[in-house]
């Protein structure tokens, strides 16, 4: 889903089948040319559909349009043979709920095509780790809030009895 390291623009490559102006020298060359063009057209469709699936699932995380790597076919046309889209995978420092949701969305965007690439799987794993960290932080915060609420309840019980605790340990000893 991201560009290869050191790459800032789509690449254009030349196809292995040379462009031959004029009529083919023999019928076999014509068949090869037609087959090569059909294969390039099929790959181009597949690549574009793959990147469109990422884009549709990424929604607001999308950082821009798709980037494609091209080859020039025997007919002189450009055909996409690879592609990528960039999505925002940054985490918020103090909003674990947003991070959990974002991690989920990253996974959905990465796995949206029916045939995710190795790069797609790596991005999905990054999204899963983000979601796991966020869920752990949410659980930690909920546990701390629960402990605080329990302490406040215990302190209230002691005050009702006319006792004022000096510390949390004192609160727990008095109630027990």
Which shape, going by the Cα principal axes?
Answer: rod-shaped
Q: Count the helices. How many?
A: 4
Rg, Å, rounded: 29 Å
Protein structure class:
mainly alpha
Low-confidence stretches: 2-10
User: What average pLDDT do the residues reach?
Assistant: 83
Main sheet characteristics: 3 strands, mixed
Order of helices and strands: EHEEHHH
How many beta-strand segments?
3
Strand arrangement within the widest β-sheet reads 1-2-3
Write structural notes for this entry.
- This protein is mainly alpha-helical and 176 residues long.
- The protein is 56% helix and 9% strand.
- The chain has four helices and three strands.
- It has helices at 27-58, 96-110, 118-160, 168-175; strands spanning 12-14, 67-72, 78-84.
- A three-stranded mixed sheet has the order 1-2-3.
- A hairpin with a 5-residue loop joins strand 2 and strand 3.
- Helix 1 (27-58) packs antiparallel against helix 2.
- It starts with 11 loop residues before the first strand and ends with a helix.
- 22% of the residues are buried.
Provide the fold topology.
Blueprint: E1 12-14, H1 27-58, E2 67-72, E3 78-84, H2 96-110, H3 118-160, H4 168-175
Parallel strand pairs: 1-2
Antiparallel strand pairs: 2-3
Summarize the structure.
This protein has 176 residues and is mainly alpha-helical. The protein has helices spanning 27-58, 96-110, 118-160, 168-175; strands at residues 12-14, 67-72, 78-84.
